[in-house]
Amino acid sequence: MAELTFVGAAGTVTGSKHLLAVDGKHIFVDCGMFQGVTDVRSLNDVPLPVAADDIDAVIVTHGHLDHVGYLPKLVRDGFSGPIYCTPPTEAVLGVVLDDSAHLQQELQERGYQHQRPYAPPMYYDQRDVDRTKRHVRAVPYHQEFDVAGVVKASYANAGHIIGSAFVTLQIEGRRVVFSGDLGRYGRPLLDDPEPIGAVDDIVCESTYGDRVHPPQPLADLRTALDSAIARGGAIVIPAFAIERSQDILLAIATLQQQDPQLARIPVHLDSPMAERVDDIFERFPGAHKTIAGDTPATPFGVQNFHAHRTTDESKALNHVAGPHIIISASGMASGGRILHHLYNHLADPKATIIFPGYQSAGTLGYYLTHGAHTIHLYGDSLPVRAQILHLEGFSAHADQNELKRWLGTATGSPHLYAVHGEAESAAALAAIARTAFGWKADVAHRGNTVTL
Ligand SMILES: [Zn+2]
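That is the input. Now the predicted structure with zinc ion docked in place:
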């Protein structure tokens, strides 16, 4: 008998952790960090239902922090088993965990956030991250692997970020699929999600279970850039270092080809982490589509491209005049180099800030995209005079139609558990599973255990 406990990403979109108990063995599918507002972040402090040294293995779907960020804490607390993931995910996970340890250290040293004293817990440091990397066992798509002697597993492409997978587990004759985060169809950089096939239970993400993405992200970006160039100031694009920065670079390259005027605007990538991710795209050419003109000097084909690696190179951008594009992380402006670019440009009426991604409640990006007039940053109060634009079409998550399309590739009549979504979107996905497919479907609740 197998039991599944929803430890994270149930009622929230972060902290993905699903605990399987099979024949006395304990297996986590994903082991992510809770992120966002304080109430959600504090869930990282809730003890796990099973002690870390009682976990036998972890199966990772992809390298985003909300799916891998808790791993070094697990290792620090005594976990000694294997961590399975695809080869590109091993590389992404390394970059993400290095950055996570670094950010925790930085917050400790800074001692405040949004002007308030702030001493967050230090969950782990670089040493724990280095130890975690030694537990990783990389397995390519479609290669069956044994987990803890009780489960057979295999990965298939989820099309969400480079290396992302959904995983099919064979447990005592049942086929159980965990979607991880599901990507999209027809994207320029990544292949479509693969079909599901035969399945008895499916644990499915529902981030956009109740919404449909704007259909023309490229045209929307073109309009945003035209408007920003007409204002005459800096164009700041907060973008997640993984995938979003690459999506934006490729979109800019495409627009540059359509409009040679645009190619005269310099493009500055100020994100060492995004650069490391660009390197992963180079190392795994089979894990993404081939892009014309992609060279180290013109990544993803972008002309007039400038990479800024050191802090001094980053600060040099403060003195650039006229329209220029700055792409920097984090995507929700919750930390990282983007903060000093926002500090410089938010009060400038000529400047434009373009948010190309989801902004979760409580982040600086959320406040800015929801009409904040004043922002507190680095101990100062800043008026928001720059134009703020929010483009949601660049999402790396399937929307409602795409989730439905993917679920339509399942054979059999599975039981669906909706995870990784706010209450409304999870409920909407469960309703689709019932009405469109005639399946049993439930919204997963944190702490609940079901028998598979
Ligand atoms: Zn993800």
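The chain is about 30% helix and 25% strand.
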